[in-house]
Amino acid sequence: MTNADAGSSLRERLDVIWGAPPGWRGRLQVVNHTAVGQRFIITGFVFFLIAGLLAMVMRAQIAIPGANIVDHETYNRLFTMHGTTMMFLFAVPMVEGFALYLIPKMIGARDLVFPRLGAYGYWCYLFGGLLLYSSFLFDMVPAGGWFMYVPLNDKEFAPDSSVDFWLLGVTFVEISSISGAIELIATILRARAPGMSLRRMPLFAWYMLVVAFMILIGFPPLVMGSILLELQRTVGLPFYDTAAGGNPLLWQHLFWIFGHPEVYIIFLPAAGMLSMIIPTFARRAIVGYSWVVLSVLATGFISFMLWAHHMYTVGLPYLSQSFFSAASLAVVIPSGIQIFSWIATLWTGRPKFEVPMLYVFGFFFTFVAGGLTGVMVAIAPFDWQVHDTHFVVAHLHYVLFGGMVFPLFAAFYYWLPKFSGRVPSKLLARAAFWLIFLGFNITFLPMHLTGFLGMPRRVYTYGWDVGWEWTNLISTVGGFVLTAGIGALVADLVLHFRYGRRAEGDVWGAGTLEWAVDNPATNYNFVSIGPVDDSHPLWSKPELAGRMHRGEYYLADTSSGQRETLGTSTLDGEPQQVIILPKPTPLPLISAVFTAFFFIGILSSLYWLSAASIAATVITMLIWAWQNGSLTPPKLIDAGLGLRLPPHYSTPNAPGLWGTGLTLAGDASLFGSLLFTYYYLWAVWPEPWPASGTAETALLPASLAAAALAASSLIVAIARRGVLLHIGLTAAALLSVVYLVLEYQALSQMAPKPTESAYSAVLWTMYGFVATHIVISLLMNGFVQARQWRGYIDAQRQLEPRVMRLFWHGTVIMGIATYATIHLFAEVI
Amino acid sequence: MLRRLHTGGLIGINLGLIVWSAYFVLLYALMSLGCRYALDAMQALGSNIITVALAAIVITTLAFIGYLTWLAYDTWRHADDNRTRFRAAVAGLVDGISLVSTVWVGAPVFMVTPCY
What we know:
The complex is a heterodimer of chains A (829) and B (116).
Chain A lengths: L2 H16 L4 H6 L4 H29 L10 H36 L7 H19 L28 H29 L12 H33 L12 H35 L6 H14 L15 H13 L1 H17 L6 H24 L1 H7 L3 H31 L1 E2 L2 H27 L16 H31 L1 E2 L34 H4 L3 H6 L13 E6 L6 E7 L5 H17 L3 H20 L10 E4 L2 E3 L9 H30 L9 H4 L1 H20 L3 H29 L7 H33 L8 H30 L1
Antiparallel strand pairs in A: 1-2, 3-4, 5-6
Helix pairs in contact in A: 3-4, 3-5, 3-16, 4-6, 4-8, 5-6, 5-19, 6-7, 6-19, 6-21, 7-8, 7-9, 7-21, 8-11, 8-14, 9-11, 12-14, 12-15, 14-15, 15-16, 19-20, 21-25, 21-26, 23-24, 23-26, 24-25, 25-26
Chain B lengths: L1 H7 L1 H4 L1 H22 L6 E2 L2 E2 H30 L3 H25 L10
Antiparallel strand pairs in B: 1-2
C-alpha cells in the first residue's frame, strides 16, 4: 500500500469515528467543534441582522423631526433590544464561535478538550436568546436600555416582567460565554501540537487566551449584579434601594466592571483575526511578535481598570476620575503598538490586495477614528459635555463596528474556504464592502456633530427648531446604504455556496496550521498531528500539510475507535497524554433544555418548576460526568513515532482538572463581586454597619461553623483511597452540614429578616452562595464515593477525587472568606 | 526565586501588570475610604494624610516594578535559549508598560486634592 492509499484509508476510518449520527436526531447530538463553532457563527449573524433591522426602524423614526413611525415606548424597546442583541447575542457569541471553530485547527488539535461543554454552551446561547426575544410574544419587551440602570428598572418603575426577561435571558446567555471561555483556555494551554511552545503559538490563540480569561473574570460581576437585581425584584432584597441601605450606583459599578472589559472582549478577538490575516497578505511574519503579545496582555489587564469612565457624571471625586481617566488614556499604548505592528508588517512585506484586505483597510480608517474620539471621552471634562449625547453613540459605533465588524467581515472572506470549500465572488464582495464602508461613515460621521449640537441619545423625536434635522437625515440615508451593503454581503455569502469557485488547499498561501485542514474542514481536522518548530509551520516546512494528510505523524492509529487528540505541556508543547474525547450525545441538549426551564420557572414565578428543572439538570450532568473515560483501567496508548502516552484520565494534569480550576476562577470572580457588594454598601452607608457588639456579630457559633468547614477541607485532603476515602468523605460531608446549621443560627441572630435592609440581604445572599457550593460539593462527594464503590477509582485513576478535592477546597475558602467578612470584619469595625 | 517566578511561566510573565492592577485598586479604595472617614482633614509631612499615603504607594510600586524590569532585562541578557529569551522579553515589556501606567495613573495624586 502506498502512503497516499494509507492516508485515504485512514481518512475513511476517521470519518466513521468522528462522524455525526445520521438524520436530524444526529444533528442534535453533535459535539464536534467545527459544527458547534459554525452554529455559533450562523446564529450570531442572524441576531446581527435582526438587531440591524431594529436599528433601521429607529433611524427611520428620527430621520426627520416629529415623525410618528413608532411611539416612545416602542422606541425605548428598540434601542434596548438593539444594544442588548448586538452586545450579548451577536458580538461575544460570534467571536467565541470563531474561536471554537478555529482554535483547534490553528493549534493542531482535533477538537476542543471539552466538546460537550461547547455544545451545551451553544444550546444555552440559543435558548437564552430565544427567551429574551420571546418577550415580544408577551408584549413585555425590555425598555430600560442595554445597561439596565436602577432604579429605572426596579419593580417600582418597571412593574411587568420585561426586565426579568432581560436579566434571566442575558444570564442564561452568559453561561454560554463563560463555558466557552473555560473550554478555550484549557484547549489552548493543553492541546497544542507537539513543539508549539508559547512563542510559536498563532497570535489569534494568544488573543483568545487573554480574551477567555477576561470573560472568565469580567462576566461574573454582571451575573452577580443581575442575580441581586432579580432578587430585589422578586423577593424584595433591597440591594439597590437607598432607603434600606442599598445603593443604585452599586449596579453601575457591577455593570461597568463587566461592561468596559466587554468592549475589549469584543475588540481583541477581531484584532487577533487581523494579526492572522495581515501577515498572510503581506507575505511575511508579523513585525514585533513579542510586542503584540505584550500589548494583548496589557490591554487585558488595563481594560479592567477603566470601568468608572462610564460614570464620570455620577459625582465621583475628581481624584478618582483622574485615576480612571489616566488608565483610559494608558490603554491607548497597547492599542497603538498593535496598529503600528500591523502597519510595519504591511510596510515591510509584499502585500497582495485581496477582498479581506479591503475590510482590513476599512478597519484601520474606522477604528483609528473611533480610538481618537475614545481619547476625547476618556478626558473627564470633555465627557461631562458629551455624556449621553449622540457623540457617544457615534464614538461607540466607530469603535465597535470599526474594531469588530470590519475585521469580522475580513475574517468571513478569509476563512470562508474552510467553511464552505469555496471562494466568493470578488465583484459582489467589493461592491458590498464599499456600500458598507460608505454607508457606515455617512451614518455615523455626522452623528458626532449631532451630539455636539446637543441631541441626547435615546430620544424618539425632536422639534424643527433644534438644528438636528439635517445631520439626522444624512445619518438615516447612510443607514440605508449600510443596510444595502449588508444585504449585498449576505447575497454574496449565500450565492457563493452554489457559484463560488472551488477552494483548493492553502488558498491564500498562509503559514498557519488551519490551512493544512481540508476545504471544507473535516470533523477531525488532521489525519495525523504533525510537530511544529516555527510560528508559521506551513511556510518553514511546505511538505508538512501533505505528510500530516498521509498520516505520517502522531495519532494516525485509529484501531481504538476512539476520538483522540494530543495533550501537551503548557509552556513548551511537549506531548504528555492522549486526550480521549466524547462521541455525539444528546446530554448537552437535554441539560440545556432543563436549564431553560429553570429560567422559565423563575420568570413565570413557578418556583417548583425551577427547582425540578435544576434537579433534572444536575442529574443529567452527573450522567454526563459518569460516562467519562475512566470506566476501564488505563493502559499506554501508541501515539505514533515511537511515543507511548497515558490516557488523560490517568495523569495528574488532565484537562478536567484544568476545567475545574478555571471554573473556580470564574466562581471566585462571582464571589468577589458579592464581597465587593458588601464592602461597597458598608463604605457608602453613613451609619455604623452593623452596630458593634458580640450579639450582632454572633462570633461564637460562626467561629465554630468556620472551624467545622476548615476541618472538612483537611479531611478531604488526607482521605485518598479505599475505605479511608469513604470514611473521610462521609466525615467531611457531615462537617459541612454542621457548618450550614451553625452559620444559619449565627445569621438568624444577626439579621433575622433578609428583606429588612441591604445589610441583611447581603449577609443571607453570601450564606446562600456558600450553601449552594456546599450542596454541589456534597453531590461531587457522593459521586466520587459511588465511583470508588464501583471500582472506577484506583491508584492510576484519580481524576474524579482530584476534581472533587479542588472544588471542595475552593468552597471552603469562600466559606472562610464569608466568615471573615460578615463576622470578623463586623466585629472589628 | 522572584526571578524564576517572573520569567518562568504565564502568571509570572504578567507580574508587572498584576502588581499594577493591585496598585490601581489600592489607590482607588484607599482614597474612597479616606474620604469616607474624612481623613483629608489630617495633616502629615506638610500635606493631607491621604495624599501622603497614596504618594507612598505610588513610589513603592514604582520601585518594585522597576526592580522587576531589571530582573527581566538581566534574564533576557543572559538567556542562552530562545524559550527563556522570549519569556524574559515579554515579561520585561509587560514591566515597561506597567511602569509607564504606574507613573501615569499615579501622577494625579501629586496634583489633585482628594475628596472633592
